[in-house]
Amino acid sequence: MKLTLTTTALALILGLVGPALADIKIGASVSETGSASFLGDPEAKTLKMLVEEINAAGGVNGEPLQLILYDDGGDPNKARTFATRLVEDDEVVAVIGGTTTGTSMAMIPVFEDAEVPFISLAGAIEIIDPVRPFTFKTPHTDRMACAKIFEDMKKRQIQKIGMISGSDGFGASMRKQCLAIIGDYGIEVLADETYGPSDADMTPQLTNIKAKPGLQAVLNPGFGQGPAIVTRNYAQLAVGLPLYQSHGVASDGFISLAGSDAAEGVRLPGTALLVADLLPESDPQRAVVVAYKTAYEKATGKPVSTFGGYAHDALRILVDAMKRTGSSEPSAIRDAIEGTTGLVGTTGTVTMTPTDHLGLDLTAFRMLAIEKGGWKIVE
């Protein structure tokens, strides 16, 4: 019998080469389906696309990434289950995800206990305030969104507003944050209404708001389908006053859901990604957002969204940290993430510190308006 050995096999027998490099396992749990799928689907697509790109370019420090991705459907209980699985069974070194505030908050205790770095993709300030050692996030906070909106109102001499907020985790949090700082801008809330995640008509609440004497504008803290319904009902009632939305609906998907006619003139704080083609060549974010937008739309055939941008930035922060530390140990990665400085992403330029696990300020927001079915910079 003739025995044939490959070169690699012979080398292994002779001890001439070591074992193959192990993949660096990173985890993710996003709401790829369910009520928050318009947020989670582009996040999932972005993570898959970027991991493929990184591996094709040689991986991280010469080692390939292995993405272990779960779809929690927007269910906090499922998200917590997947968080436990990622830590105990999959043995990942870091996790990206938490499409919504609810799923993020459900997962945080798991990652903090296991001391595995977690980069959330949700908006509420509670995710990073108070600071938790292993928890970070990429979207601007709801409190920052309130401040950006109130700055714009003050410039337009708007002093009396109505609020209609979603009762979900994000809507409730942003309502709380807005009410906490609105007095600093000399603005008074004449009406404070809410709606549930499954409500299909907000006409009664908007009618109450419209009836308030002296009303000058309306603000809708919320995300998901609720704000689109509010926008349609607002147009049907012909309120005729400025309508502000949150950064939680900063996507072309919102315009489609609300209808371009109903959404005409709506203002909200958003990222450079939504107006990539309008940025001047001198803008430090232009190259990053144009590159991501081009790659995403080529790979998926769909318009880029702010929410995919949050995942883009989270993975860039994670990879940058691993490259700088030269380690795939969770504790080393955590320290390196906290030391992120001047990283230009789609959401802004990130500089984190031990007391700031977001690393963005208000200059990262752009005040945008919807005009003829598209986006316009209004500051």
Topology:
Elements: H1 7-13, E1 24-30, H2 37-56, E2 65-71, H3 76-88, E3 94-97, H4 101-114, E4 118-120, E5 135-137, H5 142-155, E6 160-166, H6 169-181, E7 188-195, H7 203-210, E8 217-220, H8 226-236, E9 243-245, H9 252-258, H10 260-263, E10 267-270, H11 286-300, H12 306-325, H13 330-338, E11 343-344, E12 349-350, E13 366-371, E14 374-377
Parallel strand pairs: 1-2, 1-3, 3-4, 4-5, 6-7, 6-8, 8-9
Antiparallel strand pairs: 10-13, 11-12, 13-14
Helix pairs in contact: 2-12, 3-4, 5-6, 8-9, 12-13
Keywords: Amino-acid transport, Signal, Transport
Family: Belongs to the leucine-binding protein family.
Pfam family, one: Peripla_BP_6
Per the CATH scheme, the topology name of the largest domain is Rossmann fold
Low-confidence spans: 1-20
Order of helices and strands: HEHEHEHEEHEHEHEHEHHEHHHEEEE
CATH architecture grouping of the largest domain: 3-Layer(aba) Sandwich
Mean pLDDT: 93
Number of strands: 14
CATH class of the largest domain reads Alpha Beta
Task: Tell me what the structure shows.
Belongs to the leucine-binding protein family. The protein has a 5-stranded parallel sheet, with helices on both faces. The termini are far apart. The chain is α/β, with parallel strands linked by helices and 379 residues long. The chain is globular, with a radius of gyration of 23 Å. It folds into 2 domains: 24-141 and 286-364, 3-Layer(aba) Sandwich (Rossmann fold); 143-276 and 365-377, Rossmann fold (3-Layer(aba) Sandwich). The protein has 13 helices and 14 strands.
